Amino acid sequence: MTLTGNSAILPKELVQRLEDDRTDELQHQLAKAGNPDSCKINPAPWHSIEGNRYQAVFSWNEEKTPEIVDQNYKTLKNQKLSMDSEITAKLIFVQTGYWIKDEETVGTRLNLKGLQVIHDDRTNNDPRKG
């Protein structure tokens, strides 16, 4: 997949699995709420764009950014993700639920944990051509 900034295009098959997990996670988050019937449910962190493709938005903690490794699983030092990044990579992420108590709102987010670079368009280096 190509991660552009904080978003990537996902295939329908993957989104279907995410939707199943989202349903379970939303039920878990609603169970924490005092009045689940009045809770607002935020939209999924993905939306259909065309055919069998979906655009997904990822998040991460700025203090603990996702680990970035090369084809040989070696950590790439001094690599940071930004909104200008365009990296073709294998993404490692988890879907987690959240409950905003003050707003009585629940939802899920896709937390990016790491990525294995296949091609980094910032440097035009393609490790497969090495």
Can you give keywords for this protein?
disordered C terminus, 1 helix, globular, 16% helix, alpha/beta, eight-stranded mixed beta sheet, 130 residues
Radius of gyration: 17 Å
Protein structure class: alpha/beta
- Reading the helices and strands in chain order gives EEHEEEEEE
Number of strands: 8
Strand content: 35-45%
Cα shape: globular
Total helical segments: 1
Helix content: 10-25%
- Name the average pLDDT: 87
Largest sheet: 8 strands, mixed
Distance between the termini: 20 Å
List low-confidence stretches. 122-130
Short description:
With 130 residues, this protein is α/β, with parallel strands linked by helices. It has one helix at 12-32, and strands at residues 2-4, 7-11, 40-41, 46-50, 53-59, 67-69, 86-100, 105-120. Strands 1, 2, 3, 4, 5, 6, 7 and 8 form an 8-stranded mixed β-sheet that branches.
SSE topology sketch:
Elements: E1 2-4, E2 7-11, H1 12-32, E3 40-41, E4 46-50, E5 53-59, E6 67-69, E7 86-100, E8 105-120
Parallel strand pairs: 3-8, 5-8, 6-8
Antiparallel strand pairs: 1-7, 2-5, 4-5, 7-8
Overall description:
With 130 residues, the protein is an alpha/beta fold. The chain is 16% helix and 43% strand. Strands 1, 2, 3, 4, 5, 6, 7 and 8 form an 8-stranded mixed sheet that branches. The longest helix is centred in the first third of the chain and has 21 residues.
